Amino acid sequence: MRPAKYRGLTHSWDEKNKCNTKPFWAYGYYSYDGSHHWIMNPVKGERRASIVDPETVGQFTGLYDKNDKEIYESDILQIISPDLTTEHLLGQVIWDFMSWQINDGGMLDSFKTFDLEIIDNIYENPELLEANNESS
Q: Is the separation of the CB atoms in 79 and 38 below 8 Å?
């Protein structure tokens, strides 16, 4: 069974220090307290929590790309067929019809024999998919 693990992009305002910070990906458990969305990650008995943008929260699929990186919802994957006869395709990981899918490309599990490589995600580089759709 895969762990219930999430990631979310932090806000760029640090309330404690009253300054702007560079957003970063927080990984761990997801929680919503009625006013803030949190990613909590227990580290050696200590709990670290980050407020995240709810639009960027994505769940771990339980699968890894060819470089052993965890694949999350909203990642953009390069898909290469095992026999190299198919062009390199780009697709976004989504949850649809009760399974992980590659947008309009079928169930993610059906691509296990393909080389999957995380290229980016839709929040930091959405133009990758836009460019891919224009060339199709």
A: no
- Count other Cβ atoms within 10 Å, centred on residue 14: 12
Q: Where are the domains of the chain?
A: 6-55, 60-135
Burial class (CB in 10 A: 0-12, 13-18, 19+), 56: buried
pLDDT for 68-80, tens place per residue?
A: 999 999 999 988 7
Q: CATH class for domain 60-135?
A: mainly beta
Of 121, 63, 69, nearest to 92 by C-alpha is 121
Collapse the DSSP code of 132 into the 3-class scheme (helix H, G, I; strand E, B; otherwise coil) and give the result.
Answer: helix
pTM, full prediction? 0.81
- The candidate with the shortest Cα–Cα distance to 4, out of 25, 31, 33, 24, is 31
